[in-house]
């Protein structure tokens, strides 16, 4: 097995166990067994659990950041933005241990906070750029503040499924993040493009 493949298998095993049992309940020895390797080999790649979580976080962020595209405009850009919303929702389903415990992880592992903050900054900047470009093309209402709208999207995406959020309140309706964000955006879309947004959402399986 190549060195990179071994590292990847360890990360994948860790994600499975963290999702099933919670990251604080899983030991490095358990992860090694799940990955089919030795604790010595795991320790070669990751000396501490914090290092392992950091690697998982790097992979998650890199995969999302690679999708950002500043060459788009108009309908293609709006379709891309809605696709990013769907991708974020998919990541929340794939890494629930991370998204549900985000605040706690940042406190327990301070070294992760800088990376997480930088990622949020870059995503917010991209959303603000995209909304500014859409506004210039007549897609958004004139009263829309692109930076505030971008900030709202980043805040909702980072907090929607955290353990303390209304999302986990069984007394409230189960509302998908993609639907909530699409509804928020629709209120800022110019009347001439609302049907376009609805068509984009329908194509991505987002209910409006």
What this model shows, in words?
There is one protein chain. With 208 residues, the protein is mainly alpha-helical. 70% of the residues lie in helices and 0% in strands. It contains eleven helices and no strands. The protein has helices at residues 3-21, 28-35, 39-45, 49-65, 74-94, 96-100, 102-108, 111-136, 146-159, 177-186, 194-204. The longest helix has 26 residues, at 111-136. It is elongated. The model has no long low-confidence stretch (mean pLDDT 94).
In helices, the fraction of residues equals: 55-70%
User: How far apart lie the N and C ends?
Assistant: 47 Å
Beta-strand portion reads: under 5%
- What kind of oligomer do you see? single chain
Q: What string gives the helices and strands in order? A: HHHHHHHHHHH
Main structural class: mainly alpha
- Distinct helical segment count: 11
Rg over C-alpha atoms, rounded to the nearest angstrom:
19 Å
The major β-sheet equals: none
Low-confidence segments: none
Counted beta strands: 0
Please state the overall shape, judged from the principal axes of the Cα atoms: elongated
Give the rounded overall mean pLDDT. 94
Write the layout of secondary structure elements.
Blueprint: H1 3-21, H2 28-35, H3 39-45, H4 49-65, H5 74-94, H6 96-100, H7 102-108, H8 111-136, H9 146-159, H10 177-186, H11 194-204
Helix pairs in contact: 1-2, 1-4, 2-3, 4-8, 5-8, 5-10, 5-11, 8-9
